[in-house]
Amino acid sequence: MTKCRRMQDVERWVDGEASRPDAVVQHVASCPACQAYERRLRMLRDGVAAVSKTETIGDSRFPAFMEELRERRARRPRWNLAWKLLPVAAAILIVLGGSLYTYEMLTVPGPPIVESASTEIEDGTVTTYASDNGVTTVWVVSQDNDVW
Amino acid sequence: MVAVLLALSALCAPPPAPAKGPPPVRIDVVAIHAFDEAHAGKQYEGGLDGMKTALEDLPYNTYRRLDAASVSAPFNEETIVPLSDRHRLYLRPMSKEPHNQVRLNVRLHMTRKPETGRTPVNAINTTIIAGAGRQVKLRGVKLDQGELVVVITIRSD
Questions:
Q1: What pLDDT score was predicted for residue A145?
Q2: What are the residue boundaries of the structural domains of chain A, listed by start?
Q3: Which residues of B touch A125 (CB under 8 A)?
Q4: Residues in chain B with pLDDT values less than 50
Q5: Of B53, B116, B136, the CB nearest to A147
Q6: Where are the beta strands (DSSP E) in chain B?
Q7: pTM summary value
């Protein structure tokens, strides 16, 4: 790149710090080297500005910023609490389910119970038994085949 | 005077509402003729496949459905289920019991063959307590060359 002894003036001018900006403008208009240098400086400055766009919270906006922050923090714990309560809820469900299952197992009646059983068949007797499959049998037995 | 007023109030009083008892009990009854035939393995005829569990302990190899009925039996009344020309089943729900059970009186009534000259009898008279879905099997009553088997199932309300 071609050098010019007034490039430092161009830098100050681009930064807005030139003591005699009119003179710099007049020189740049007639100096191709300084014109190229000015273009480079401005490209560089625009690029930096594009990258560093950190939003600064001024004093006037700070209370609103803090208010928003408080609202966000107030919202967040609900989800956190829900997630924290999830294992507790699961544990309660398991305990309740187990209790219900145990209750059902203890209270669901088994095979039918025979309170009484008899027969009017002469020489007949009645016996009862409950099978493993939950069926209760009432069985009349007689040796005399003629009674039927 | 007081007696007159009492009599008048008694006359004007609305008739007592009929006592509302528990609803009738739904009961399924299947009558089966169990006997032996000359074939291997057990044979269930007439859609008795669903009764295999109840019949599995019987020593016969052929099971034929004689009759099947689903009845709604009111409490403290006898509901009659004809099973064959000589056998009838009497069902009388007596009371509700804990855990949705029912106390049920069952009579298997039988008329004798005419040649025996004997009077009809209750071949089986039993009272059971059974819950919904539970089965009671009556057996031992001779029928031709086999047995009459009656499977009673209490149904849920």
A1: 65
A2: 7-51, 55-108, 111-142
A3: none
A4: none
A5: B116
A6: 25-35, 43-44, 62-73, 79-82, 87-97, 101-110, 121-131, 135-143, 146-154
A7: 0.61
